[in-house]
Amino acid sequence: MNGPVSAGTTSASAAASTLGAAAQQSGRYFGTAIAAGKLGDSQYTTIANREFDMITAENEMKIDATEPNQNQFNFTNGDRIYNWAVQNGKRVRGHTLAWHNQQPNWMRSMEGNALRQAMINHINGVMNHYKGKIYAWDVVNEAFAD
Q1: Among 46, 66, 91, 120, which residue's CB has the most CB atoms within a 10 Å radius?
Q2: pTM metric for this prediction
Q3: Distance of alpha carbon 33 from the chain centroid
């Protein structure tokens, strides 16, 4: 069927100039994972800042990074990513509160109620630290199979 382009179709001239802007045209976001160790790389941060409107910490908010020793939380690198994102007008998605692949050594031999309590403590500790700051969380990663 030939005819005029419908009002809902975006013409090439109206196309967004970045990936994030293109996603926003349809009410979506376009995100990327950021590694804290790359925040000093200007090419990396320039591209991330220009193209994306949602940032996820690559590994820095995962359980082994945020609670490397039981009841001893460390948010240094997660906060570095969060602060960079906010300073650059980005929202932050948290990833991940529980994942077998990055479970800290102190937790690996736990089971039953001890493991459950450790997970509750961990989730509460991270949630309290980032309360009101994180847009959304991937709570459990690959719960059933890789």
Answers
A1: 66
A2: 0.82
A3: 6
